[in-house]
Design goal:
- With about 120 residues, the chain is mostly beta strands.
- It has no helices and 11 strands.
- The protein has strands spanning about 5, 10-15, 20-25, 30-40, 45-50, 55-60, 65-70, 75-80, 90-100, 105-110, 110-115.
- The strands form 2 sheets. Strands 2, 4, 5, 6, 9, 10 and 11 form a 7-stranded mixed β-sheet that branches.
- The chain is globular and about 40 Å long.
- About 35% of the residues are buried.
């Protein structure tokens, strides 16, 4: 079972940028599709972006054009570069992993807080 640890969250002004990282261990990284989700206070967790085994990406409309998900297989790490941050991007961001044989996300990180000041 893969374990995930996020980092890179913090406080940023509106219009600024952050890069989140998700380090995976305990599994074969290339067997997993990776994704980022977020959860704002009082709201459900929502999908942000994903990247599959061959590098194909998918984004929520709310972040499309402002965010880039990538993976560095040699480092077992997934990244989320977020630009032009808005107050509505403020949330706890979670990394998730989906094994190629699974139908549901197999592992979640503990989350990293992103705070955007206006």
């Amino acid at each position: 079972q893969v374990q995930l640890v996020e980092s890179g969250g913090g406080l940023v002004q509106a219009g600024g940028s952050l890069r989140l990282s998700c380090a995976a261990s305990g599994g074969t990284f290339t067997d997993y599709a990776m994704a980022w989700f977020r959860q704002a206070p009082g709201k459900d967790r929502e999908f942000v972006a994903s990247i599959n085994w061959n590098g194909a990406t998918n984004y929520a409309d709310s972040v499309k054009g402002r965010s880039t998900i990538s993976r560095e297989n040699a480092k077992n790490t997934t990244y989320l570069q977020m630009n032009s941050l808005k107050p509505e991007d403020m949330a706890v961001y979670y990394c998730a992993a989906l094994h190629m044989g699974s139908r549901e996300w197999d592992a979640w990180g503990q989350g990293t807080q992103v705070t955007v000041s206006s």
